[in-house]
Amino acid sequence: MAPPDTWARAKTAGLDAHVLLSTHDSYSFSDGIGDLVRTGLTLAYVHDIRAVLID
């Protein structure tokens, strides 16, 4: 979802939207303009999974 002012806000934030999106870095793009959705734990019936790798 991208509101009509997405490109303008990216430019104001100093982000090069074309570079970020062409390198599939939507996380940095969305976070940079304040549109990143952080869901966190849901504690739903299906339960959240956390995996820890210990080397």
Note down, in words, how this protein is organized.
It is a single chain. By secondary structure, this protein is mostly helical. It has one domain (1-55). Helices cover 36% and strands 0% of the residues. It is built from three helices and no strands. The chain has helices at residues 6-12, 17-22, 26-32. The longest helix has 7 residues, at 6-12. The radius of gyration is 16 Å and the shape is elongated. It starts with 5 loop residues before the first helix and ends in a 23-residue tail after the last helix. The relative contact order is 0.13.
Topology:
Elements: H1 6-12, H2 17-22, H3 26-32
Shape: elongated
How much helical structure, as a percent, in the residues?
25-40%
Number of domains: 1
Radius of gyration: 16 Å
Largest sheet: none
Number of helix segments? 3
Head-to-tail CA distance between termini:
39 Å
Q: What series of H and E elements makes up the topology?
A: HHH
The count of β-strands is: 0
Class from helix and strand fractions = mainly alpha
Strand residues, percent: under 5%
Question: Averaging pLDDT over every residue, what do you get?
Answer: 83
Report the uncertain regions. Answer: none
Features:
55 residues; mainly alpha; 0% strand
Question: How do you describe this structure in short?
Answer:
This protein has 55 residues and is mainly α. It is 36% helix and 0% strand. The longest helix has 7 residues, at 6-12.
